[in-house]
């Protein structure tokens, strides 16, 4: 190449090539910012999860207040009405509302879709609604349609009948009877029906000023429950304490030392599961009669919006649920009757 050719390359071709490289890079950069941003913006009208990588979606489902991933175990207080008037009751008859059964089933389906594996029906007294048929239909639906591993009820036992067991017993895993009430003479009947219709029998006792000195060891052994849950009497603002409350729990309260003494007196009972106020307060996912999660972190019960209106995740974000305490208090246990080695 002569001198003239070298000059042409230097003065014309090199700047042209440099400009070309710059233009290509510029357009690539623009595409990255402009086109991709537009692409994402167009898809943002779809569900936000569809635009996120899998690991981000995983994080976004960690929605409980303390990082709960799913409503694993839910307590649905389907009614606030009760045929008893216990002085320490912490879920009182503020309303008489009961959801239509189809709406309750819809809410339970939403919970199952979100990861619920255990549901406990409670009240008030769940057998009070439609003579037990309402809770019976929900129990059957949860076992047959939703295939939940654990379906349980807490009751005062007074309205439970053998006919109920004949119709719905096969769908129920555990029936827990509140024992400090004595269930007015039919505790043994309920225990026997549980055995006959293959439902695990559980006892719940609230330790309060009137039974704190009792020794129930022999009676518990005679009744042979699969589990005996022993609670420390719990004050809840707006329910059993405070100006607006329908009960006054003060005369029933026991100190931590008195509760511990009760536990110590019953240390021979192997199935005893203790629950102090501290363990209890925020470690339950509680749904009220409107299917609103109740947040107990402030000492009262602050309702979220209903899962029927806003879905499970936004409602659960307002629940105040302490998942760590749930596991610490033994909230996850052998809760399906097929897994229990019971002597039917
Ligand atoms: S039986 Fe239960 S729901 Fe009814 S008043 Fe007593 S503690 Fe409350």
What report would you give on this structure?
With 344 residues, the protein is α/β, with parallel strands linked by helices. The protein has two domains: 55 residues; 267 residues, Alpha-Beta Barrel (TIM Barrel). Helix content is 37%, strand content 15%. The protein has twelve helices and ten strands. The protein has an eight-stranded parallel β-sheet with strand order 7-6-5-4-3-2-1-8. Strands 9-10 form a two-stranded antiparallel sheet. Helix 3 packs parallel to helix 4. About 13% of the residues have low confidence. The protein binds iron/sulfur cluster. Iron/sulfur cluster binds next to loops.
Keywords:
single chain, 344 residues, TIM Barrel, two-stranded antiparallel sheet, 12 helices, 10 strands, binds iron/sulfur cluster
